[in-house]
Structures are given as structure tokens and as C-alpha cells.
Amino acid sequence: MGSGLSPELPRPIRVRRLAADGRLRVIYVGRLMRASPEALVVEAFWERPPLDLGYVRLEPQDRFVEYFFPGRWFVIYEIHHHRDDRLKGWYCDIVYPPRVSEEEIELRDLALDVFVTPAGEVRVLDEEEFEALRLSERDPSAYAAARSALRDLLRMVERRDPPFGILPWAAA
User: Fold this and answer.
1) Structural domains counted in the chain
2) Which SUPFAM superfamilies does the record match to this protein (predicted)?
């Protein structure tokens, strides 16, 4: 990626999310707020009907601050309530490293997810879906990288690395 992205920010950028098999899941446009070789930060808004996941409810116009890390196997979505911008938590996806161009960020989801509440509770989600991909047999290096990314992400939460350092429990 390097310095290939336009320095003019904020600006629109398309985000293309693919399933592990490459099928298109969703395309949306966000605003690229920051860009460096280490991370891209995009602001986007939930534009779908309400979705209750059991541990968080996504509602129209909830604000997402999305952290994409070129070369890393995860992305982090910081979710804020649409009415008062209160933090709802972080939804984190284990993905193939994002592909970034001037116009677009493309992600291939590996089904393994993490949710972190504002109180610091951590849930690892969709282990069965991840194992059903059979990456350990079909692509052992991708399987190992995804498992390593999960460990890295959990360490970031434990150490309260950004963006997790803004939590109320960070002062504890």
C-alpha cells in the first residue's frame, strides 16, 4: 500500500466484503478518515434493518469506526449508538489480509470473529463455521495465520492496545 493512497482526507472509499469462498457479501461506501502503511480508518454507518446478534443490536445509522490493517489477518469495527454515540463494543473479523487500492478495500472473511463489550468482556464467535471451512486441510498456512491473528487480537484487548485503550476498564 505504502504512500499510494491519495493524501486528501476524509474522502469516500468503497468496502467490499467477501465470504471465504470469494462470493460477494456486501458492498458499502464509507469515509476514509486516516491512512498510513500500518492502518486505514474508515467511518461508515449501518444502513440495513436492525439486527440483534444476541450480544449487540445493530440499528440503522449506528456509527462504525473501522480499522483495516494491510498485511494483518483481522479487522476491527468499533460500533457506536446512532442516538448518542455511546460505545456498543468492538466486532472483530478474522480475514485474509485486506486488499487496498485508491478506490476500495476488499476483505475475505474467514468466519472466525470476536466481540468485545464496553465492559471488556470478550467473546470468541463462530469457531464451528471457521473449522467448517477446513482450512487446516485445504490451506494450512492460512489456517495457522488465522489462528495466530486471533491470538494477536486477544492480546491487543488484554493489553488495551488501540483502539481498545479507550475503554472505561482501561483505568482499572
Assistant:
1) 1
2) FomD-like (SSF159234)
Cis peptide bond prior to 10, omega within 30° of 0? yes
* Contact predicate 107/143, CB 8 Å: no
Q: Is residue 58 part of a domain?
A: yes
Lowest pLDDT segment from 3-7, 35-39, 53-57: 3-7
Q: What is the pLDDT of residue 33?
A: 97
φ/ψ of residue 97, rounded to 5: -50, 135
76-90 pLDDT, tens digit per residue, is: 999 999 999 999 999
Domain span holding position 122: 11-161
CB atoms within 10 A of CB 62: 22
User: Is 1 domain-assigned?
Assistant: no
Query: How many CA atoms lie within 13 Å of 39's alpha carbon, on the beta-carbon side?
Result: 13
